[in-house]
Specification:
Blueprint (H helix, E strand, L loop, with lengths): L3 H34 L2 E8 L19 H18 L6 E5 L2 H14 L3 E4 L7 H8 L4 E6 L1 H12 L12 E8 L5 E6 L16
Parallel strand pairs: 1-4, 2-3, 2-4
Antiparallel strand pairs: 1-5, 5-6
């Protein structure tokens, strides 16, 4: 019964059983790994709506939205809900400017998410934070054109350059875990007619 020759004859008989089991384990681990890492992160970059110019707060460099800007901002949340087709906004960031926070409020109300404020020193690290902490999530970021342009470069080496009077463009950076990111530009609200690019800074 303990003959070594008998044991040697029995071992090969286990191979047909072990190989399918091993294949199942490998396949299961592969599917789990892909489901964990092959997730798409969506970052929606929104420039604040039009700011007031004759407001008393404009002297501080931090004006509120103009009436036209308020109208546009109210449309942002419903617009994103339609754009995302049932996908929720998981995280919402806004520059700590009044006009940016007022623009973001519609998104916060539509998706029931808090507004995370960004100071001037927070923008440089935001792309890394999104990639580390918000993988597979949908993130909306509202700010000034220059801040959003820098964030787009850091997220996916994308270039965005809205005109000075363009507050209607929304830039969607889609970053799958596997493969390069890509950029989509859409418009919302009653945006102004496009004008030739000038030397005026976009902010």
């Amino acid at each position: 019964m303990n003959d070594p020759l008998t044991r040697l004859r029995r071992r090969p008989q286990l191979a047909p059983l072990l190989l399918p089991l091993l294949a199942l384990v490998v396949a299961g681990a592969t599917v789990f790994g892909l489901s964990l890492w092959a997730r798409t992160t969506v970052v929606i970059l929104v420039r604040h709506a039009e700011a007031a110019t004759s407001d008393a707060t404009s002297d501080t460099g931090d004006p509120d939205l103009s009436p036209a800007g308020e109208l546009r901002a109210r449309r942002l949340g419903p617009f994103l809900a339609e754009l995302l087709s049932g996908r929720a906004v998981d995280y919402l960031y806004s520059a700590d400017l009044r006009r940016a926070q007022q623009t973001a409020a519609s998104v916060a109300n539509e998706f029931q998410v808090p507004i995370n404020l960004l100071g001037a020193s927070d923008w440089s690290g935001l792309a890394g934070r999104i990639q580390r902490e918000h993988r597979g999530a949908t993130v909306v970021v509202v700010g000034a054109a220059t801040e959003l342009a820098g964030l787009a470069r850091r997220l996916g080496n994308a270039t965005i350059a809205p005109d000075a009077d363009d507050h209607a463009s929304v830039f969607v950076v889609t970053a799958p875990s596997l493969g390069p990111p890509w950029l989509l530009r859409v418009r919302y609200g009653d945006g102004p007619e496009r004008k030739p690019v000038s030397d005026k800074k976009s902010r």
